[in-house]
Specification:
Helix content: 40-55%
Largest sheet: 9 strands, mixed
Number of strands: 16
Strand order of the largest sheet: 8-10-9-11-12-13-14-16-15
Structural class: alpha/beta
Low-confidence stretches: none
Length: 483
């Protein structure tokens, strides 16, 4: 019988041989090289500083949903090391830990020790050359962070990237908190979508939109919005229906080549199913009954208009306890399938009032709605719900950016309430109202007066470009999606 160490060693040797030979196939389509996510530049920066003997950032953690491009990202980093930095192939190891554990049960530390012993005749302490180890599906090892900590502490010469299809375990573990750089890989906003699908760079519009939202000055965004629209008009491959396609089916580069809407929806539903049935039970014990409950909660959310979710009503719907409902909702949030907004107000109000829940992308909501047969499909109200989800998703992802610190609330005012209130630290509130058609100023003006705001924002189709009318800024939905 083959020993465990030999099985691991053989697997590693196969990966060292095979991965360099499949890079072209994995990173291109019809001989066209894939464009890269912006996170690749950040990873390259960490790799470059490590090669210059700066070992302060040698553990990178990339959590995110399935299908957002994490594997492609680390294979592009792998290719960068081989082709641009001339690192020997034996010094760069890519491992799908899922595949390795299908063959032999082990942890990441054991795998690394076997790699060093068999390839470099070394151990963690005496390794004397630079080595790069990229571990995909790292959440398979429930003690991945403990392994990372030991490797970090014992060797100055190992650079590691951990990815996880679920952020659940990655975010729960504190062992690497002071040692790692974490970068959540989120579904694509429209700026990222255009770069990956068409190679169109409109990042200036994203930056100017951020300045507009938090500063209220529209001058820069008018210029960058005009330039972005010109770029799209002059791009031969760009379809006039692309934004609508992105709105209902986008966010996941893994689905770029899918031709039919039905196929995309089926794949998006499958992503949610795999998160529930495969990722969540690996991290926290989840009974088959609660896996079913998690699926039913997602269907329930897909059929409801965005609003206050009463845990008691949901518990009654599921025939379970409110404590169990809260547990499942918390797990779903940690996987990044959903997120919540709390009501604006003091801590007492936030405790008493229910939360609003949104999906990671409107495309996930649309796919689930299509599967279960939402009676509102195709209606203006339904389109409005999807748009509210898009605005919430963009704001949520922006709020988790390390350079942008603000909080998203919903307006708990029962009279003329707007959809969102955002606030940076103790600065003025910025109210945001969302509508698929044309919106009147009644609600936003009420919020501006009530919360003593300098200006408010309406995301709607009142105008074809950004426009400021007194203290109200109108942003077309397509333009907002560049955020």
């Amino acid at each position: 019988m083959i020993e465990k160490e030999e099985l691991i060693a053989n697997f590693i040797k196969d990966e060292l041989t095979d991965v360099p030979n499949i890079l072209n196939k994995e990173l291109s389509n019809n001989n066209m090289e894939f464009n890269s996510r912006e996170e690749l530049d950040e990873i390259k920066g960490y790799l470059d500083t490590f090669l210059k003997e700066d070992t302060s950032n040698k553990i990178i953690v990339l959590p995110g949903l399935r299908g957002v491009g994490k594997t492609t990202l680390i294979l592009q980093a792998y290719e960068y090391l081989l082709k641009e930095k001339n690192i020997p192939p034996n010094n760069v190891l890519y491992i799908s830990f899922d595949d390795l554990n299908d063959l032999v049960e082990c942890n990441i530390r054991q795998m690394v020790e076997v790699y060093l012993k068999n390839i470099f005749h070394a151990n963690l302490r005496n390794l004397d050359e630079k080595v790069f180890i990229f571990v995909d599906e790292s959440q398979i090892d429930k003690k991945w962070a403990s392994s990372g900590k030991v490797i970090y502490d014992k060797s100055y010469n190992i650079f590691m990237i951990f990815t996880g299809s679920s952020a659940l375990h990655l975010e729960r573990n504190d062992d690497l908190a002071r040692r790692m750089r974490k970068k959540s890989i989120t579904p694509l906003n429209y700026t990222q979508h255009l770069k990956l699908k068409y190679g169109i760079d409109v990042s200036c519009l994203s930056a100017d939109l951020r300045d507009l939202i938090f500063g209220g000055d529209i001058n820069n965004v008018l210029s960058s919005e005009f330039k972005a629209n010109n770029l799209l008009t002059n791009c031969l491959n760009y379809s006039s229906t692309d934004w609508e396609e992105y709105f209902k089916f986008g966010g996941f580069p893994i689905l770029f080549d899918k031709k039919s809407h039905r196929e995309i929806c089926e794949d998006l539903v499958e992503i949610t199913q795999r998160v529930i049935t495969k990722d969540m039970p690996q991290i926290k014990e989840l009974s088959s009954e609660n896996q079913s409950n998690a699926k039913r909660i997602l269907r329930y959310l897909a059929l409801q208009q965005p609003g206050e979710l009463t845990q008691a009503n949901l518990a009654n719907y599921l025939k379970t306890s409110t404590a169990n409902v809260n547990k499942i909702l918390d797990l779903l949030e940690k996987t990044h399938l959903i997120f919540h907004c709390e009501p604006y107000g003091g801590s007492a109000k936030r405790v008493k009032k229910s939360w609003k829940y949104y999906f990671a992308t409107p495309s996930i909501r649309h796919a689930l709605s299509t599967k279960v047969g939402n009676p509102l499909l195709g209606s203006d109200d339904y389109e409005g719900f999807l748009l509210e989800n898009l605005v919430a998703s963009n704001l949520f992802n922006l709020s988790n950016n390390q350079f942008t610190n603000f909080t998203i609330y919903y307006d708990a005012d029962k009279k003329r309430n707007v959809d969102f209130l955002i606030q940076k630290d103790c600065e003025n509130i910025i109210p945001i109202e969302v509508g698929r058609g044309k919106k009147k100023k009644l609600q936003i003006k009420h919020a501006i007066n009530k919360y003593n705001c300098q200006y408010g924002i309406v995301v709607a189709n009142n105008y074809s470009s950004v426009k400021k009318d007194d203290d109200v800024i109108f942003i077309p939905p397509k333009t907002f999606s560049f955020l």
